[in-house]
Specification:
InterPro entries: Choice_anch_L, Ice-binding_C. The chain contains one helix and six strands. By secondary structure, it is of the alpha+beta class. It has a two-stranded antiparallel sheet with strand order 1-2.
């Protein structure tokens, strides 16, 4: 599992491969009543970024293998960013998720539409 890479593209591996990170889930025999072949443990990723750059990118890739059914997924929770002027890892701050922002935008659009109808 590679958690990060340098701007040059060189991979940084914070955790070497560990088979205990994988939870097998054979169909009909697994812990969970889903058709995924397996699951992973919860991962917590922490890393420093280059403060001289104005933009940082988090790229998450998943793969599906061993069958012709595309049944892979990734769940992301608790995404946090940090603003720190002293260097090092500071206290995390919440980062708005795109889905939450889309829901907020749709809600505001609905409010504007209802106000427009009342005014007309």
């Amino acid at each position: 599992m590679n958690y990060a890479q340098f701007p040059s593209g060189e991979l940084i591996s914070n955790t070497p491969g560990n088979p205990t990170n994988f939870i097998p889930n054979p169909v009909g025999e697994g812990l969970y009543d889903i058709e995924w072949n397996g699951l992973t443990q919860v991962f917590t990723v922490t890393g420093l970024v280059d403060p001289s750059r104005s933009e940082h990118t988090l790229q998450i890739a998943i793969a599906d293998t061993s069958d012709r059914i595309y049944d892979s997924a990734v769940y992301i929770a608790g995404l946090k960013g940090v603003a720190s002027t002293g260097g090092g890892i500071g206290d995390p701050i919440d980062v708005p998720e795109p889905g939450s922002m889309a829901l907020l935008g749709l809600g505001l659009l609905g409010l504007m539409a209802s106000r427009y109808r009342r005014a007309a």
